[in-house]
From TrEMBL:
<dbReference type="Pfam" id="PF19361">
    <property type="entry name" value="DUF5937"/>
</dbReference>
<protein>
    <recommendedName>
        <fullName>DUF5937 domain-containing protein</fullName>
    </recommendedName>
</protein>
<dbReference type="InterPro" id="IPR036390">
    <property type="entry name" value="WH_DNA-bd_sf"/>
</dbReference>
<dbReference type="InterPro" id="IPR045981">
    <property type="entry name" value="DUF5937"/>
</dbReference>
<feature type="domain" description="DUF5937">
    <location>
        <begin position="13"/>
        <end position="61"/>
    </location>
</feature>
<dbReference type="InterPro" id="IPR036388">
    <property type="entry name" value="WH-like_DNA-bd_sf"/>
</dbReference>
């Protein structure tokens, strides 16, 4: 679901709510609850409610998918993954050619075979029906409301952001590269390290 879209010259900013992506984020937390201490209480409460078979599946597919980070990229390639109905998104993925899925996994130097992929999608359905569907009722309105607020904030300040990025780019502190419809900005740490010295040098002129 596209919450808002902001254009500023060649820069495109999209605020998208993808229920499937939110569920994958939840699975990522369940795999790494020690790395997400502010979500540990929630993770513990989930593990108390599910059986060992589902627990093992969460960990198994976490290993196959780099802790669910790889499938989080799916919505960059398939707009159907932004469907408000998670089961519809999963059903769409069932019909995606495995070659296209493997291409995404290869970016992480990880391979997946047909059997693993089918079992993974079946597991996602099970997790949604048994666990996440109840969670979604409570968090969805909050997420959409938050995204709308963020979109409004960016909309008010986009001119300032654009000017700042332009100045940083011209001073070589950031570099940019196009990735499909998006522009990715990278921080040039070397230039940043020398910035203080350059300012000092300028003052002494």
């Amino acid at each position: 679901m596209n919450i808002d879209t902001i254009y500023d010259g060649k820069i495109l900013v999209k605020f998208i709510y993808s229920p499937l992506n939110e569920m994958l984020c939840a699975l990522h937390v369940l795999c790494n609850s020690k790395h997400h201490l502010h979500r540990k209480e929630w993770a513990d409460s989930v593990y108390e409610k599910i059986d060992n078979k589902l627990k093992n599946s969460i960990l198994e597919f976490g290993e196959i998918t780099d802790d669910y980070m790889i499938p989080m990229d799916f919505n960059m390639y398939f707009k159907e993954c932004d469907d408000l109905n998670i089961l519809s998104s999963i059903e769409y993925l069932e019909n995606v050619n495995l070659y296209n899925i493997r291409k995404i996994f290869r970016k992480y130097n990880i391979s997946i075979n047909s059997g693993q992929y089918k079992r993974f999608l079946s597991f996602l359905k099970q997790f949604y029906i048994e666990v996440y569907m109840k969670e979604e009722k409570y968090i969805e309105p909050v997420i959409i409301r938050t995204l709308k607020k963020k979109a409004d904030y960016i909309s008010m300040s986009e001119a300032a952001v654009s000017k700042a990025l332009k100045l940083l780019f011209e001073s070589k502190i950031v570099s940019k590269q196009r990735n499909g419809n998006y522009i990715i900005y990278n921080l040039n740490k070397r230039e940043l390290d020398y910035l203080e010295y350059k300012i000092y040098e300028y003052i002494l002129r």
